[in-house]
Amino acid sequence: MDAQQVVRSRPLGGGHLLAAISTSIVGILRDHYGRGPMKAKTYALDDIIVVVMRGSGFTPLEQTIMDSGQPERVVSMREDFQSVMAERYKRTIEVLTRRKVLAFLSQAHVEPDITMEIFFIDRPLEGFGAVEIAQAP
Questions:
Q1: Fewer CB near the terminus (10 Å): N or C of the chain?
Q2: Which residues neighbour 41 within 8 Å (Cβ) at sequence distance 6 or greater?
Q3: Residue 48 — pLDDT band, cuts 50, 70, 90?
Q4: How far is the C-alpha of 109 from the C-alpha of 82, rounded, in Å?
């Protein structure tokens, strides 16, 4: 799904925004990794967006590495891939949210098969709140 097409007319909000983010990130994975996760869920809280993907499955190459007893190499390979894809992910989030991405973090886990993409944006999203607690100086 092209993020530009999704927001052509007006900004997305609520569940429509979350669904568009999940669908777009999964689409990028399918286009560039050859497969996507079985499940994807996006959470937005204030100025943070988290995309959690489960059950991507392993490519035959990854499964061979896993079977050799080196799952950390699969995690490393997936992290390298996410690093290569970072600009595409960030651009997608910026188009969909109309916010600037300040930071992007990615974490891959093998068993269970979970990947998290975390985006910190320049200002809160309307309708998604948080409570901030700060210590007095």
A1: C
A2: 22, 51, 52
A3: very high
A4: 13
